[in-house]
Each structure stands twice: as structure tokens, then as C-alpha cells.
């Protein structure tokens, strides 16, 4: 018997073993989906599903220098997890199977490309069972989360004015410009039901931050103004607290009055806003993810 004939049974057996091994291997994710963002919107959402035979899906996202990358996973299935890898630095960053978290963020010093690997343990899935999810992806810097500045104007003989608005994932900060005359006092009150909404006051000429309620822990502030000046009053929230589909309402009350003459603006003058409520909306409710 020739050498080739003697080796044939071995070759067939080896091929059968390789085939069996391939069948036993887990099914890897399909080609990665490149994540894109619409103009002027720092958030986007990918909806998908995983099952016993398609147990993972990959997404790639490019994040610019100085931006924050945030990932929120919304799903009804507790066996769905995600991993994040910084491809630029060849570094594994997080695996939520180990942390148990459904949201994660990182500040990006340099531009980088990330891979988001959404997966499920196939051993936890029944044949024909499908786990649906929504993956909310945000990449934002301070400039991405601001709306145009609103100029505050006071009516005659009315020392107080009120601005009512909302913050959301596309605008987590709003600015108001307030001109105050010499010898007057500037007062600012923030009314909101959301504890993660704050305000800060900056002197436009000097760039000095006069107060930030995130650190002062006070929703009321006032200061006498010796020389006429314009101030920027910013109401803001941590973008991580405002994923897509959620919003926070507020009322910002501005007061100006002559120093040492408080009678025209006693506490009752700054009446409670007609509507200053936070309006939380579930961030991509379970229905969005199936």
C-alpha cells in the first residue's frame, strides 16, 4: 500500500475533527457597524438583538480629542453586556459582565477609535430566544452641549424676570446674558426638581466665575455691582445625567434692584414659577429596545 493511501484515513479523520471543532466554536459578531452622528446632535442610538447563534455585535465609534464618550445599554434581558476597547491604544477598558453597570463613560484626551462589543452568554439563551437592546452612544464636549445665549431684559418697574426652560441630551446647558447697572444688586434663583441641575454666574469682562451652585450647594445667590457690567448666567446639568429621551426642567429667576433698597423685591416678589418642574422621560424605554 502506498504512503498516500495509508495517510488517507488519517487525513479524513483530521478533517472531520477540524469540522467538528469549527461547529463547536462560538459564532462571532458580524462585521462591525460604524457609528455616525447627525449634525448638532452629540447622541445617537443603535438598536439590535443577540441570540444563541448570533451572540455578539460590534460597533466602532471615532471620538475627537477633548470629548467624552458615553455608553448606555438599555435592555430587558439581564444577560446582555458590553465591552469597550480603545483600538488606538490597544487597550481593553471595561466589561460590564464584571462590573454589572449599564452605563459607562470616559474623557478622551486624544482622538481615538473605540469598539463597543455587545454580547450575551449563549449558555443562558434558549433555542429561538432573542435578546433585544438599544445602545445609546454619546460623544460630546462643552461646546456641543450649549444653546445660543439668551439676552435677559427687564420691564419697567419690575425688578424680577423669569426664564423657564429644559435641558436635554442635545443641550445640557443654556446661557443668559444679564446687564446690570452700577449701584444695583444682581440676584439669581434656580427652581428645579432635578438635583443635578445647577447654575453659575460669570463676569463677561473679566471671565471670573462668581458662583457655581454645584459647589456652593445653594440655589439662591446675590451680589452688589459697583460698576456697570454684563454677566453670563449658565444653567447646566452633567451630560451623563441626560441620556437620549430624558430632560430636566427649570425656572431661572433674575433680579436687579438698587443696593440697600430691598423693599421692592421682598421675597414674595420673586413668586414661585408657574411651571418649574423637571420632566424626566425614560431614556429609550424598554419598548425602544423591544
* Spatial ordering of strands, largest sheet: 1-3-8-5-6
Q: Regions with pLDDT < 50 over 5+ consecutive residues?
A: 1-30, 262-290
SSE succession: HEEEEEEHEEEEEEEEEHEEE
Using only C-alpha atoms, the radius of gyration works out to 28 Å
Percent helix: 10-25%
Rounded average pLDDT: 80
How many strand units? 18
Report the biggest beta sheet as strand number plus sense, adding barrel if it closes: 5 strands, mixed
Classification by helices and strands:
mainly beta
- By DSSP (H or I, 4+ residues per run), the number of helices equals 3
Shape: elongated
N-to-C terminal Cα separation, in Å?
63 Å
* Beta-strand content bin: 35-45%
Structure description:
This protein is mainly β and 290 residues long. The chain has three helices and 18 strands. The protein has helices at 3-24, 96-99, 213-216; strands at 33-34, 43-51, 56-63, 68-75, 80-86, 91-95, 103-107, 112-120, 130-140, 150-151, 160-168, 173-180, 184-191, 197-203, 209-212, 220-225, 229-237, 247-258. The chain has a five-stranded mixed β-sheet. A five-stranded mixed β-sheet has the order 10-12-17-14-15. A four-stranded antiparallel β-sheet has the order 2-9-4-7, with no helix packed on it.
Amino acid at each position: 500500500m502506498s504512503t498516500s493511501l495509508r495517510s488517507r484515513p488519517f487525513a479524513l479523520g483530521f478533517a472531520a475533527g477540524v469540522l467538528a471543532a469549527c461547529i463547536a466554536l462560538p459564532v462571532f459578531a458580524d462585521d462591525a457597524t460604524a457609528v455616525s452622528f447627525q449634525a448638532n446632535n452629540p447622541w445617537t442610538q443603535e438598536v439590535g438583538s443577540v441570540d444563541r447563534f448570533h451572540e455578539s455585535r460590534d460597533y466602532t465609534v471615532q471620538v475627537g480629542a477633548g470629548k467624552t464618550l458615553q455608553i448606555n445599554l438599555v435592555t430587558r434581558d439581564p444577560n446582555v453586556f458590553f465591552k469597550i476597547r480603545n483600538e488606538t491604544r490597544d487597550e481593553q477598558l471595561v466589561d460590564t459582565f464584571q462590573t454589572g453597570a449599564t452605563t459607562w463613560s470616559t474623557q478622551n484626551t486624544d482622538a481615538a477609535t473605540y469598539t463597543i462589543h455587545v454580547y450575551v452568554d449563549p449558555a443562558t439563551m434558549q433555542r429561538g430566544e432573542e435578546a433585544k437592546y438599544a445602545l445609546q452612544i454619546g460623544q460630546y464636549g462643552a461646546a456641543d452641549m450649549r444653546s445660543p445665549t439668551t439676552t435677559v431684559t427687564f420691564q419697567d418697574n419690575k425688578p424680577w424676570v423669569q426664564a423657564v426652560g429644559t435641558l436635554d441630551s442635545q443641550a445640557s446647558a443654556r446661557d443668559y446674558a444679564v446687564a446690570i447697572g452700577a449701584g444695583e444688586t444682581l440676584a439669581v434663583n434656580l427652581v428645579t426638581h432635578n438635583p443635578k441641575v445647577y447654575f453659575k454666574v460669570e463676569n463677561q469682562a473679566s471671565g471670573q466665575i462668581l458662583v457655581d451652585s454645584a459647589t456652593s450647594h445653594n440655589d439662591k445667590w446675590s451680589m452688589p455691582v459697583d460698576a456697570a457690567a454684563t454677566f453670563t448666567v449658565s444653567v447646566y446639568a452633567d451630560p451623563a445625567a441626560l441620556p437620549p429621551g430624558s430632560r430636566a426642567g427649570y425656572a431661572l429667576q433674575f433680579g436687579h434692584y438698587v443696593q440697600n433698597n430691598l423693599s421692592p423685591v421682598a421675597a414674595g416678589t420673586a413668586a414661585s414659577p408657574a411651571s418649574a418642574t423637571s420632566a424626566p422621560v425614560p431614556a429609550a424605554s424598554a419598548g425602544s429596545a423591544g
